Amino acid sequence: MPFRQLLLPMAVLLWLAGPVLGAQAPSGKWWNNAVIYEIYPRSFQDSNGDGIGDLNGITQRLDYLKDLGVNAIWIGPMYPSPQVDFGYDISDYENVDPQYGTLADFDRLAAEARRHGIRVLLDMVLNHTSDQHPWFKGAAASRSDPRHDWYVWNNGIVDSAGKRQPPNNWVSLFGGSAWQWVPAVNQYYYHEFYRAQPDLNWRNPQVEKAMMDTLRFWLDRGVAGFRLDAITTLFEDAQLRNEPQQPGVNAQGDPVVSRIYTDNLPEVHDVIRRMRTMIDTYPGDRVLIGETYLPDTAELDKWYGGARHDELQLPMDMLVGFTNKLDVAALRSRLLEVQTQVHGSQPMLVFDNHDNVRSWDRYGDGVHNAEIAKIVATLLLTSRATALLYQGEEIGQVTTVPTRVEDVRDPIGITGWPKEKGRDGERTPMQWDASNAQAGFSTNPKTWLPVPPGYKSVNAQSERADPNSLLNWHRELISLRRTNRALATGQMQMLDVQNKKVLSYARVAPGGQKVLVALNMSGETQIVSLDAGNTRPLKTLMTSPAGMPLPKATTAITLPAFGVWVGAQ
Ligand code: GLC
Fold first, then answer.
1. Which of 20, 361, 495, 555 has a CA-to-CA distance to 505 between 20 and 30 Å?
2. Is the CB of 88 under 6 A from ligand 1?
3. CB distance 371 to ligand 1 below 6 Å
4. Residue 537's domain is classified under what CATH number?
5. Tens digit of pLDDT for each residue in 362-414?
């Protein structure tokens, strides 16, 4: 017996509709309603047959990105790097790694992207460098090196057995102590991430100056902005106090600590404000996006600069997208918070990236994953938010984790095996077509990570030809977002707010025109009644499944299991 929702009297529905969200007028910046597509360059497209993606490969695929409708691409780190953490360990901030191409290739990519109407954003790693960066090599060779103080050093302590130990209990996110001993200087250096990624000392003003110069180098080359990697961890406690320890160990076998002395320290906001002032001197609304995993929306608001709006334009909200289950009440309240608790700033939503199990697997129930992926896409692309898409998300690529430790590439998986298998699973090559066993990603049978077997049906080419595919669902949503005023500029209003099975909301254009969205997050048919406070004729814009009965009125919308209805009134 399908669950059927009671039709509530009009007055109650009006009360349930809740407040109109996001009261601030849209700012008119290009990024305000943009869809930004994350490219993991190693896995996007290989143009020279070495089994590794590259910049010319991205250039070759710009037609695809234009057809998808994205406004900008964020390219993962393509700078010279020993590739211990696949580019997040940079050894030269002002060049391109030969594996990925040359500066001339970058300039050509940027020019071609412009021709396609696509902006280019770069990943910028400010927290740490590679241990092979000349700065660190000098710093680790001698205490009197002019750059020694550019990193975080400490003499450590001598324990009761007379043995030298790290100064405190700080744990690396990649496993083990966060301190590494260097005999040449008789000191430990601090590394939040892998030991090949020494943290920079942001209390030294020369570090800030060097990094500002680097940002300018790329801004002068025309990039539209940056995604700031691990930006919340720039500062560590100056007194090096021990982090509070909780019971148990994590997947790496390390003690579980609360990172109150190594993450999200208040000093970072001064740096961000100066960075914002600097990029605002450039024309064209350059943008700063933050990788901001934060405990709550109040903290997120600080990353915008609160009421001053003088820090990042787009710190990522990780709360909505990483709810990790179709929990209607949780998703509704998180969406509501990011719409109302950030002083009118623009929310940025993200469900997928190169660091997490794909949303296909995190939200899927193993049976209805294809339908659920359309729910996730709809939520991402019809909310009032700048949207981040990760390559492969739009076609439903699945997470494919290595089965043998010798196949693991990600350092986290190497240190954490077998409990922590690392992030290779979400970084497998983009599945373009079924033209060869590499899914069109490369001509080389040995790709840096294997192409999952599902590529024969899950690939961009065959999905483009299938009107009901996940790819075309994304294309249609993005196109609607660009052309429909309510979706492009409208405020967001939650509807039917007591409903625990269906998430419904309206986007309201200044003239009162509305787009209505109803997402059935349950495995049973649901009937919803949405009062949109509007008497205009109802028009269905998109449905999933494709053949679902079209409602004649907002008061009786029948949604099949995991069904989606998007309409206009
Ligand atoms: C960020 C990146 C991740 C990287 C880490 C260290 O979290 O997204 O891939 O390993 O920073 O730079």
1. 361
2. yes
3. no
4. 2.60.40.1180
5. 999 999 999 999 999 999 999 999 999 999 999 999 999 999 999 999 999 99
